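Notes from hallway chat w/ T.B., transcribed later so I don't forget. T.B. wanted the structure written out for a chain they're using in a teaching module, and asked if we could keep both sequence and structure tokens in one place. Agreed to drop them here.
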Amino acid sequence: MITTRTRLDPSVFDLPVEKMRAGWYTDAYFNHTRAALLEDGRHPQVVMQVFQKKNAYLGGMDEAIAILKLCAEGFDRLTVHALYDGDELEPYESVMTIEGDYTTFAHLETVYLGVLARRTLITTNTVNVIRAANGKPVIFMPARHDHHRVQTGDGYAAYVAGQVMGAEIGVTTDEQASWWGGRGLGTVPHALIASYGADTVLAATKFAEWAPADMRITVLVDFDNDSVRTALDVAAALGPRLWGVRLDTSESLVDRSLWGELGDFTPTGVNERLVRNLRHALDAAGHGEVRIVVSGGFTVDKIRMFEERGVPVDAYGIGSSLIRGSNDFTADIVVTDGEPSAKVGRRLRPNPRLELVT
């Protein structure tokens, strides 16, 4: 479980405060609502209740609180209660309540709901992957599948998932790791191999000559579609400097090491037989300490299947599936000027787990 209940300081998020205060990121109808209330001199004292509808793990709460603290018209006049990033959620459970003059924060609903939706999606997806992987290290690799502006918060949401599960989470860019002071990690990529004329061993050797002594050197071995042979050659060349090899065979290809075994299994991509062949070959050659990392089309279901079958994988790299799906949040005014005011089908749902935000 998360070891601290300390919230991140609002300054960490580098918010575009003036634009948020001006309603620049807000659905127009909220801006119009606020303007109409202010024109009428109406300042309803409300309880706003925020929730979502799934079993999930909360992400983005510290960021949502930062939005309220920095962009509301007087946060000191609001009373906010909230859960913490990483908290496990039940459907319809209140994750935050905001009490006070609605006109002081009406222009922020779109923003804090969007933050909670995105980060909770990432945290929940990552928790599910870690659980499927039985606690093995997971490399969070969606950076190339989405806009660069989402990297920071998504990386932190994945980190929160790792804290929840007590598992190792690696991210691939420094920006993804910036909120907790980490660094991006990565393997010897195809681009470096191509830069050395498609010679994986040469590229790996040159990379090792450059790499800091404490770097876990991991080398992609599928460039020639002969992963077992390439992995053995790399292991022989790098010796103890090699931490692991990574299989990333395209789902449209059959690795050369499997060509003589076709007929009784699905041979394309990174499959069980390929991993077992690689583990056996490395062990037989005296490279039992070399880890096997797999990537390329991995989902929760595929990871779960690998683990159930005892496939000898040491770490999983997973990308686009971690940012797919939805986990929408809703905010309702449920009390106005001390009287119940929720729309039909909604009601005040007190949650004793909520804590006062100071």
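Follow-up for T.B.: The domain at 135-323 is CATH 3.20.20.70 (TIM Barrel). Might be a good example for the class.
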